[in-house]
Specification:
Layout: H1 6-19, H2 24-28, H3 32-44, H4 47-61, H5 63-79, H6 86-107, H7 112-124, H8 126-132, H9 139-158, H10 162-174, H11 184-208, E1 222-226, E2 229-232, H12 233-256, H13 259-264, H14 268-271, H15 274-286, H16 290-304, H17 311-323, H18 327-341, H19 344-352, H20 358-371, H21 376-385, H22 389-399, H23 408-418, H24 423-439, H25 446-460, H26 472-483, H27 487-490
Antiparallel strand pairs: 1-2
Helix pairs in contact: 3-4, 4-5, 4-6, 5-6, 5-7, 6-7, 6-9, 7-9, 9-11, 10-11, 11-12, 15-16, 15-17, 16-17, 17-18, 18-19, 21-22, 22-24, 23-24, 24-25
């Protein structure tokens, strides 16, 4: 471009480049006919693109045409028996997700009843899909979960007859071999309403009365073995049947707000289990039945005291105590849990409920308790995270013989937190990690250990009193004496 200024030349170049950028404005400038030709050419070699174009054309005509296209595609997927290799799995997942999106975007807004039917058909594809497609990364499962959530939302708008909806939910629960309908009762509870839920309850109560038939003695088929002996096919079927009925009736009782019906699905022995007791008590609390909730909690206290961790039980127990006005007991429980586990959440809740000035004294007591806690590293974790950094440094200086250099996930950030104001405590933690890596010949950690050594050298210049820990140069000399041949570390 002779005679053109550099600035103008640059502007022309940039404009030419921007004209070729793939964006909506530039593509629209090609015109509808040219774009249509390009799309048709691309679709000839891409089946997914062709299906997308058909859906787009159908949506232009209306939701009914889209529903017809989706039904055809779902029917094709249902009939297919070819295995979806790993390199085709992504395109396949994209295809079925496109069907779900099309249902929600083009059918649900104007024809919710049709959308409900399509979503049921979509979810019913799960067995055939899982049988011929590896879903180890969970992509298909996530799509199915999304469809189930969509189903609950659309069904509320569709206002379908309660009996028809109950029939379909019942069939779904009974045919849930691939967990695609997990939670369907909860998702559909609002659409079912009390009438539909009651009908559904009756169906499962009737199912409970018709368990699978027992096989004739001597002809019972063994399908496996457990620590208790042979597993017979009829026993397995009966247990599965009982679990299915109980699970469904429990979910229905929950959806109906029937706390007693929910609790009745658990045996007396199960109600003594702290996990089940917490679930029941939580529901009783929500129903303003705190006394009954406490009775359930008390029945499970013996099992809880046996030593296992039941976090939900303890949380609910404290809620019940507070609801009953037993505030001192609730506070005692919070402190007890903190003292046992150094649980910071319970300590915060405990301090929050104390009068002014008493909380400072209690916090000091809690920090002292953490410093003397049997588990050194658990105590250090609490003190660093609280944060109580002065106490954390004292904890390390007093008990550094308990440092385990293998706890790098704790000691590295703890050293970072303390190095500014407590260089000796930070150095002791870094030394522990260096020593562990060398003593155990953890070659992969040598790079980290070498960096820790440099940090120790830097921190040593700021340490005036080593409190008997051994000055840096003497410690390094001993390290070289013991591990001088580990050149991979010294040269890192």
């Amino acid at each position: 471009m002779e005679g053109t200024s550099p600035a103008r030349s640059l502007g022309l170049t940039l404009r030419m480049a921007s004209d070729k950028t793939l964006n909506t404005k530039n593509l629209a400038a090609l015109g509808a006919e040219r774009l249509a030709e390009l799309l048709l050419n691309l679709a000839q070699e891409d089946a997914g693109a062709k299906r997308q174009l058909r859906l787009a054309l159908a949506s232009h005509a209306g939701g009914g045409d889209v529903a017809t296209e989706i039904r055809k595609r779902l029917a094709t997927i249902a009939k297919s028996r070819s295995f979806v290799d790993w390199h085709k799995a992504r395109a396949f997942a994209k295809d079925i997700e496109a069907q779900r999106v099309a249902i929600m975007k083009h059918v649900a807004p104007t024809q919710p009843a049709d959308a409900v039917d399509l979503l049921w058909r979509f979810l019913e594809l799960a067995p055939s899909i899982y049988e011929r497609c590896d879903d180890s990364n969970g992509t298909i499962g996530d799509i199915m979960d999304g469809a189930l959530e969509n189903l609950g939302d659309v069904a509320k708008a569709a206002k379908l007859p309660a009996d028809k909806l109950a029939d379909r939910v019942f069939a779904a629960v009974c045919a849930n071999g691939y967990a695609q309908f997990d939670g369907v009762i909860e998702e559909m509870s609002e659409a079912l309403g009390r009438e539909g839920l009651s009908l559904l309850k009756a169906k499962f109560e009737a199912l409970a009365k018709t368990p699978p038939a027992k096989q004739v003695s001597g002809q019972r088929r063994i399908i496996g073995y457990s620590s208790r002996g042979a597993i017979h096919e009829d026993d397995f079927a009966a247990e599965r049947h009982a679990r299915l009925v109980r699970s469904a009736l429990t979910e229905i009782a929950d959806a109906l707000g029937d706390v007693d019906g929910y609790a009745a699905r658990f045996t007396s022995e199960e109600q003594g289990n702290p996990a089940f007791a917490a679930d029941i008590a939580q529901r009783l609390l929500a129903a303003d039945r705190a006394e009954d909730a406490m009775a359930v909690i008390e029945r499970a206290e013996k099992t809880h005291a046996a030593g296992r961790s039941w976090p939900d039980f303890e949380r609910v127990r404290i809620e019940v105590l507070e609801t009953l006005g037993r505030l001192e007991d609730a506070q005692a429980a919070r402190w007890s849990i903190f003292a046992r586990d150094l649980n910071a959440d319970y300590l915060r809740a405990f301090l929050k409920r104390l009068p002014d000035f008493e909380d400072e004294e209690a916090e000091t007591r809690a920090i002292t308790h953490a410093r003397g806690y049997a588990g050194f590293h658990q105590g250090l974790t609490f003190l660093v995270n609280w944060p109580a950094l002065n106490a954390a440094a004292a904890h390390v200086l007093e008990r550094h013989g308990e440092l385990d250099g293998d706890h790098y996930w704790l000691l590295t950030p703890a050293a970072d937190a303390l190095e500014q104001r407590h260089p000796l405590a930070a150095s002791l933690m870094l030394r522990a990690m260096i020593g562990f890596a060398l003593d155990k010949a953890r070659v992969k950690r040598y790079g980290h250990a070498a960096r820790h050594l440099k940090t120790c050298e830097y921190l040593a210049k700021r340490i005036e009193d080593w409190y008997g820990a051994g000055e840096h140069d003497a410690w390094v000399a001993e390290l070289k004496l013991r591990h001088g041949r580990k050149t991979a570390f010294w040269q890192a």
